[in-house]
Amino acid sequence: MHPLGILGRGITTLISSWGYWGILVLMSLESACIPIPSEVVLPFSGYLVLLGRFKLWPIAWVATLGCVLGSLLAYSVGALGGRPAAERYGRWILISPRDLARAERWFQKHGGITVLVSRVLPVVRTFISLPVGVAKMPVGRFLLYTAIGSLPWCWALAWAGVKLGQHWQALGAYFHRFDLLITFLLAALVALWVWRHLRQRPARH
Q: What is the DSSP string of 91-106?
C-alpha cells in the first residue's frame, strides 16, 4: 500500500505521467473547492527536481497558475449563483441578508489581506474563493491577491520537497496536523455562529 493511500498514489501517478500539466490540473482542482492536498502535490514535484524531471521555479509558476484558474472558477460560481442562493436558502443555515451584507462590507474593506492569508492556510485555501465570489470582491483584485499569496506557498512547498528528497512524504504528515487543528477551529466557529443566532431569535409564543 502506498504510504499516502489511494489519493496520494493517484496524485503521484498523475504528476509522473502528465508532468507540469499534472501539477496544473491538480492545483486547479484544489483551488476549485476540491480537497486535493497541495502538501502532497508540491513536495512530490519538488522531489522530482532531484530526479531531473522538473525545475523548481517552473513548478512554482505552474502551480500558481493552477491556483488562479481554480480560484477563478470557484469565485465565478459564487458570484454568478451564490448570492441569490444564499439569500433564498441562507435562513436554513442561519445566514440572513444582513449577514451577507456584512460579509460584503468585510471583503470590500479587508478582502485583500483575507485572500492573502487564506492562501497559506490548509483547508481554508481550498474553499475561500467561493465566499469571496458571493461577496463579489472585484475580480481583478481577487486574482492579483490570489497570485501573490499562492506563489510563495507553492515555491516553499516545492523547495521543501527538494530538500527532503525521498522523505518528501513526511511533509504531508506534518501538515495533516494543521489540517486537523484548522478543521477543529472552523467547527468551533460554526458552533459559536449557530449558538449566537439561535440565541438572538425572538421566542415564539
A: GGGT--HHHHHHHHHH
